[in-house]
Amino acid sequence: MKEIILLKDGELALKGLNRNSFEDILLKNIKYRLRACGKFRMVRGQSTVTLIPDEGADVTAACDELSRVFGIAAYSRCAVAPKDLGAILELAPVYLAETLRRAKTFKVEAKRSDKRFPYTSPQISAEVGGKLLQSFPHLRVDVHDPDVTVTVEIREDAYIHGNQCKGAGGMPVGSSGKAMLLISGGIDSPVAGYMMAKRGLELHAVHFASPPYTSLLAEEKVHDLLTKVARYSGRIRLHTVPFTEIQEAIRDTCPEDYATVVMRRFMMRVASRLAAQNDCHALITGESVAQVASQTMWAIGCTDAVAELPVFRPCVGLDKEEIITVARKIETFDISVRPFEDCCTVFTPKHPRTRPHLDEMPAAENGLDIDALCERAVAGVKLLTISAGGVNDD
Amino acid sequence: MTAYFDNSATTKPCDEALAAARFAAEECWGNPSSLHSRGIEAAALLKKARRQVAALIGCPDDRFFFTSSGTTANNTAIFGVCERLKKRGRRIVTTAIEHPSVLEPMKRLQAQGFDVVFLSPGKDGAVSVEAFREAITPDTILVSCMAVNNEVGSVMPVAAVRDAIRDAGAPAVLHADCVQALGKIDVSPRALGADIITVSGHKIHALKGVGGLYLASDNLLHPYVLGGGQEKGVYSGTEPTPAIASFGAAAEAARDLSGNAAKVAAMKARFLDAVRELPCVRVNSADSALPYIVNLSVLGLPSQPLVNALSERGVCVSAGSACKAGRRSHVLTAMDLPPAIIDSAVRVSFSRLNTGAEVDALIAAFCEVAAKYGKK
User: Which residues are paired to A49 by β-bridges?
Assistant: First the structure.
């Protein structure tokens, strides 16, 4: 039996003049993501893309990959029949047998874009519906809220499918440019990366490592997290910044209660520099207002002031539980809760300032050679490329 | 060079163990239960290894049974005894500082309605005989007590617990977890008075994948791994002969208990003499602890960074016990040490196979790290 996959564009379809270039990016992304599933031919239609597998291509694996490609609103796996009602009636009950055996109610929708086909849409629906009722006597027709909607589309060929699957939505990765994600190893930052990739951003990531205060296992944890995020975002370039010198300088110089906010400001400065070097036009963090002392409105104000780019904080208004729900969905939660010290927890003061003020920052940072420290941190960066398949050395 | 001082987590397989494992895997790979020549060879090898391990324990060959690890030995002992004696009583006495492979079965039994008492240690990391005497009642069916604690090296009064059980008139079986004690002290039934003694191969320079238990008599326990009836039905499953052969060879190589202890005591003394001078160092193990295990803290530097910093310098030690990385030590907590000490504690564990050069490297790295990162 021949099968194809029908994709429905999401928001793309609403765009004006940019739509074509967005679609080009989507097709390029799909091609990259399906590279391990065999060869597929792609045919563009009006707000749909048809994927036609070559001999030996793995359609099941391809559908799994497509469920995580941003820019696809929905997709359907279809059986292909000749444009002949007899052939359609023969194939539909066989192809949909497993789905329909588990369902109680169904309806049939027909779409005829080839108007030369000698039956109208209502006629096709009636014929196919009748045939399915005959083959599966336990089924009832429910046109308002069916368990399964059987769709017959008459295009170049006749396509038959059951319920369409929800796609990942959003915009194709890369269609909105590149941004730099600050990733710690906690629960929130991978979720933030996922959410912004969904808005079409290609991800770079920056991780701050403070050996020996943080272990290699903490870095490995970040690699594992990004491997999961990359299943949605595609390849991610990871910049690992040596942060020990800055942490120690802060510990030795700053008033303890300002240490956290000063550290966050350093992270923003270093991330901004790396972003500029890598054509990234925004920073992304997992901050959520009032979650911890460094994420109060006042603390965020102090860190924002040194970021040279817009800072996207998609989790800012989410509760922890809401963030965890997404983290579970993208399978990062179990990795995030592994118990290794990360750079945010080692130098944590006992009573950090929750309402630091921007005016107080010069005094708090007095004695720190900010430029030189940032420069050395940037110079020591290690670069890795992370994809859904794992880590590659650069 | 890596100077390895995490010998309580696992040990490097010794040459004798590797040779025996290789021979078993290459030349003697039959199933010991088979009746043909291949099987008979493998059975002979199993018999030899059993004799060697039993000799190190100091028990009769035919009372020792192989399992797949120390953990499976402990689980077999604890669940097996309680299943067998559950009609005679519901009380179980153990300590708060046992290995998780004892504590977790105990928690399961507690959830099933057994009355489990977890005794706390004193400042020296050992539980007193008096505590056992108070806890053991006439309806106590199991007393489980490790011979040597895995995190601080404290020696527990197992032999005196035997008397406490007798004086209480309890039907209790005495189980001694000797995973950390085997090859270090005399763990024989004569010395400890235990009915069940559990051990593990990879802590004494054998391969991983083998442990075992001594049972004083038949019918002490209901086996819980059922199958082909290997190991007289105590622990079913085809015997992993390469690992078992390595256990036998490693046991034979470890027979000189007093010689090895003297060698290790000298290493420990040299290390402690060097680091005790440092103002930020606190030794948490008692002087009475075995020389093989030293628990100590560097104030101002949490355990994991301390382990990382030493590891960068080629020295391997452990933050607490490797089995529970990332959680606060239940042993040091039970010893009632301040949180700052607990959170910066590491365990240095020695083996007779450590060299003087390795101890030099340990001392140099430890002093450098403590001076650089410790509280001034």
Answer: A7, A44
